[in-house]
Amino acid sequence: MVKKSEHPLVGNDRYEGFCVDLIEEIGNVVGFSYVINLVPDGNYGGKTATGEWNGMVKDLLDRRADIAVASLTISSVRSEVIDFTKPFMNTGISILFKVPKGEKPGLFSFLNPLSIQIWLYTIASYLVVSFALFVLARFSPYEWHNPHPCNAESEYVENKFSMANSLWFAVGTLMQQGSDINPRAISTRIVGGLWWFFTLIIISSYTANLAAFLTVEKMVSPIENADDLSRQTEISYGTRSSGSTMTFFQVSKIDTYARMWRYMESKRPSVFTKTSEEGINRVMQGNYAYLMESSMIAYITQRNCNLTQIGGLLDSKGYGIGTQRGSPYRDPISLAILQLQENGKIQMLYNKWWKNMGSCHGDEKKKDSKASALGVENVGGIFVVLLAGLALSVIVALFEFIWHSKRSAKADRQSLCMEMAEELRFPIRCHGSTKKPAIRNRRCSRCPVPDVAGEAPNGLVLVEVGRDGFKEIHR
Question: pLDDT above 90 covers what percent of the chain?
C-alpha cells in the first residue's frame, strides 16, 4: 500500500506493508537491490476473454518485471506460463460478511439458560420427588406422630405429608423459599436432603448462565457456511473477476461450488468486482457476501470491526513470489523464504501487519459463543444423584417398616407377617386420610377375648374405623 506521509516520498519509501517488508528481508538474505513498481491495471494475473494474460503475470511475460511480490496465489494455470517460489504463506478461500445485528431478547428469554430437555427433566423430577415423598411418608411408621404432644393419650396419630403438602414442600424448596413442614423419618429426610441438593445445583447453574445471557448480546447470522450461501437467493455473493478465486469456482466439480458458480455467472447485475476494495464496500452496504482468500479476510476484519469471516476454508493453497520462466532468482528466493520461515521472521511480519496494527479482536466478534443453554452433558449428573437417592430412601423406608413391625409384633404377641399386613392396610388405601388410630383393635391367640361385644378387657380401648373417621366404642 502507499505510505501516508506529510512530506513527499520517493522510490521504495513510498510503499509499506507485509510484502514490502518481506522483499526487503529476502533482499538482505539473497543480496540484491530492487525497485518497486505498481502494476498498471491493478490485477494479480488472469486470462481475459481473448485468452491473453493481464496484471502481474502479463508484466512477467512481457519481461517488464523480474519478480512479482504480492498475495499471488500459486495455481496450475499460472504455473504453465510463469514460475513460483516456495509459498511464504498458506491460505484458502472463505466468506467475508457483515457482522450480523444482535438478536432482540424474546418475551420468554429467561428460559434460555437451560435447554428444553433440562426444563422437562426438572419438571419430571419435581413430580417424582413429590410422589415419592407422599408414598414414603405414609409407608414409614416414623412419619406418623401425635398432633397434640401435651396429650399423651391422643387417640390418633397424624401425617403431615398429604399429596398437596408434598407438592408444596417440593415447590417451596425449588423456589428457595422453604416450607412450614419438614420430614421426620430417615427415609423422607433422605429424599428431602437430596431434593435440596438438586435444587441448589439447578438454581445455581441457572443463575450463573442467566447472567451470561443478560450480559452477552446474541448474534444470529443468516448463513453459517458456503452450503447455506448456495441454497439461498436473498443474499448476493460474488468474487473478484480475473482472479484465482473466480477460477476455483469456474472449474470446480463439487456440487456446492458448481452451484455457486452458476449463480454468480447468471446473476444480474453482476456480482463480480474489479477490485477487492469494491467487494468490501459492497459487503459494508449489506446483503452481500464476498468470496476471497482467508489471509486477506483476516487482515480486513482486524481493521474493520463491522466485518467478519463466515465458515471455514473452501480450499487450501499458498501465496508465492512469481518469477519469469527459468529465472535464476527463483531458487535463491525460495531458499531465503525457507530460512525466514525457520527463524520465525515471516511469522513476526505477519503478527506485525495482521495483529499488532488491528483494532478489532476475534473474541469480541464471537462473544455470543460464550452463552449457550445448559444441556444434559452439563448438569445431567445431578439427575443421576437424585435417582440414586430415591432408591436409597426406598431401601431405608423398607428397613424402617420392618423394624417397627418387628417391635410392634413382639409387643402385641403376634407374628411378624400378621403385624406387617395390618400395618400396610391403612397406607395402601387410595382414599386414606392423613390421620389414623393410635391404638387399634387386634386379635391374637394370646390376647384375652371380651365376653360381650364392645366390652374391652384390661381397660383397653376398642376403636371402630369407618369412612367418616374413627370413634371410641368402649374403654
Answer: 44
The span from the CA of 376 to the CA of 383, in Å, is 9
Kindly provide the b/e burial profile for residues 286-303, where b requires at least 16 CB atoms within 10 angstroms of the residue's own CB: eebbbbbbbbbbbbbbbe
Q: Are 65 and 307 in contact (CB under 8 A)?
A: no
Phi/psi of residue 47, nearest 5 degrees: -80, 135
Which three three-digit cell numbers place residue 441? Answer: 383393635
For the beta sheet containing 67-68, the strands, ordered from the edge strand earlier in sequence to the opposite edge, are 67-68, 322-323, 83-84
Question: Rounded distance, CA 191 to CA 184, Å?
Answer: 11
Q: What separation in angstroms does the CA of 165 have from each of 40, 139, 147, 169, 345?
A: 86, 16, 16, 6, 74
pTM for the model stands at: 0.57
Largest Cα separation within the chain, whole Å, is 134
DSSP string, 176-233: T---S----SHHHHHHHHHHHHHHHHHHHHHHHHHHHHHHSPPB--S--SHHHHHT-S
- Could you read off the pLDDT of 286-300 as tens digits, one per residue? 899 999 999 999 989
Question: Each residue of 13-34: pLDDT tens digit?
Answer: 889 999 999 999 999 999 999 9
User: 10 Å Cβ neighbour count for 425?
Assistant: 12
Q: Which three cell numbers stand for residue 15?
A: 510503499
